[in-house]
Amino acid sequence: MHLREITDHNHDAVCALRVRQGQDLFVALVARSLDDAASTPDANPWYRAVYSADDPVGFVMLSWNVPPGRPGIMGPYFLWRLLIDEQHQRRGLGREVLTQIVALIRADGATELLTSYQPGDGEPWPFYQRFGFQPTGEIDDGEIVLRLALSDR
Questions:
Q1: 48 CB contacts (<8 Å, ≥6 apart)?
Q2: Beta bridge partners of 115
Q3: Fold entry, domain 2-152
Q4: DSSP at 58
Q5: Distance between CA atoms of 8 and 1, rounded to whole angstroms?
Q6: 56/64 Cα distance (integer angstroms)
Q7: Is residue 152 scored above 60 in pLDDT?
Q8: What is the pLDDT of residues 124-146, one digit of tens each?
Q9: Most buried pick, 10, 79, 111, 117, via CB within 10 A?
């Protein structure tokens, strides 16, 4: 598994990735995510396609090293989107992506990674909990905010 920039060459293939039925309640599709990144430059969006060999299998997007004081933007490091295509789920790819992201942001000086999720049937909380995320006690726009302390890993 490796991360690649999204270019004109792979854009359509990455945007064609889909989650399982019902999971779309918890994660936006890639095209919407790219639109959100373009419309929210203050969030310092950083995104990559997830590849297995030469095949796109997922997408990840973070707010990367956001300076304090930007209203409505969590950070400095916030896992904004993580999507693994329905045909490639349950193979450990999500865990591999997070492991790689943690290494990258730790190298950039991060001490924690934040994320959030919408509660509901089929929610991603068990996945994040197994990885080591803990609830912060905050709710942001109806989503439960989680924190992964990088010093503990």
A1: 3, 4, 5, 6, 59, 60, 61
A2: 79, 146
A3: Aminopeptidase (3.40.630)
A4: E
A5: 21
A6: 22
A7: no
A8: 899 999 999 999 999 988 889 99
A9: 79
Under 8 Å between Cβ of 37 and 45:
yes
**Dihedral sign for Cα atoms in the order 7, 13, 14, 15:** positive
Predicted confidence at residue 25, as pLDDT, reads 65
Residue 149, pLDDT > 60, answer yes
Mean pLDDT of 17-40: 81
Q: For the chain, what's the residue count?
A: 153
**φ/ψ of residue 29, rounded to 5:** -70, 165
pTM: 0.90
C-beta separation of 73 from 41 below 8 A:
no
Which pair of structure tokens corresponds to residue 72? 């409505």
Q: Is the dihedral of CA 31, 144, 1, 77 positive or negative?
A: positive
Question: H or E stretch including 101?
Answer: helix 93-107
Strand order in the sheet with 143-149: 2-4, 45-52, 55-63, 78-84, 112-117, 143-149, 134-140
